Queue: 2 jobs
Job 1
Amino acid sequence: GAGVSQSPSNKVTEKGKDVELRCDPISGHTALYWYRQSLGQGLEFLIYFQGNSAPDKSGLPSDRFSAERTGGSVSTLTIQRTQQEDSAVYLCASSFDFGNTEAFFGQGTRLTVV
Amino acid sequence: KNEVEQSPQNLTAQEGEFITINCSYSVGISALHWLQQHPGGGIVSLFMLSSGKKKHGRLIATINIQEKHSSLHITASHPRDSAVYICAVRSGSEKLVFGKGTKLTVNP
């Protein structure tokens, strides 16, 4: 596609349920990043992928969070047993390569845990 | 103390004014990014720079590596420039570390 696509754009879920957030990067981009923006807070790093592998998972808040990427393309961020503090906008970005290259962001998924 | 500090936190200007947003960081970096986030939430990358100065239209970004400081300037500001401007640095790993953003409102 023309840009980074994320789905769903909005998700409301009940506390304790699992959710899956999807990111479709720009075709050909090898680097994929997940970030989170909580209400009133700045962006925080969650995880990045180099191809299908995730060299840095240091930003994942807890073991309820996991992510995978298949075929060097689509990535899924899964949150198990959601908690209210998981409510945030989850942003995905991709770039052609690593190092100092421009990152292109998706519109984000707004997750609300009730 | 955050690794990336932005100032001001909020900025209101009249259309046509010259705008400056500042970013200071405390770590060695390989690159600094300026991002724009509109009210709808979408983020656009404005600049990526590791030295000197870059210009795109009415936007100018500068960086001083020795002083660990960058500025984003907007000339002849317009209401459509109203957005949150975010400074982010990359320091040896792939992840970006973000400032908390500067909310700019340009009134007609």
Job 2
Amino acid sequence: EVQLVESGGGLVQPGGSLRLSCAASGFTFSSYWMTWVRQSPGKGLEWVANIKHDGSRIYYVDSVKGRFTISRDDAKTSVYLQMNSLRAEDTAVYYCARDLRDRDNSGYFGYWGQGTLVTVSS
Amino acid sequence: QSALTQPRSVSGSPGQSVTISCTGTSSDVGAYKYVSWYQQDPGKAPKLLIYDVDKRPSGVPDRFSGSKSGNTASLTISGLQAEDEADYYCCSYAGSSYVFGTETKVTVL
């Protein structure tokens, strides 16, 4: 069974940093693109970043470029999101997601974690 | 990237059909076949309903169907059921990025 478990969320002051983790199990982690999607309270979904199965390609939404870094550790079957220079508008539930098909980045997020809440406030 | 445009809400009685539109541009929906739809219950993670415009993952009832014409994709729920009351989002590949639609709340009357 595919499982994605996020951790690392919490309350942080504007300008601060936080590192989110997503522990994956139940599939061949090294064969899948991994993605972070966020959802601000009461708002819609926003794609944040994704990383290719071999780590050779990484993409970000414009609003987080230069502040967030996505990475993966295939040995630990985990994907991470390092978030620096956090702003109030980064407040959201952050979901880790896996593409439906291996070696595919069509953006079909077939599996999701339960999400972790990040609150940026003084 | 601007969010794709969806109606804020749609409603229907049990057994009826409802359709949710998703309007993008020639840089996203109109440019690629990589359109998907998600259902989200309150407090839960989204669930993939449709991919490749009109394909359903295993386990998704066939009353959910998708289509696309030009810059607009559509999700149709046929034979509406009480458990279909939820929020729905479309999503499109936009060339090295992805853009979601604005939320559509489906109400079963």
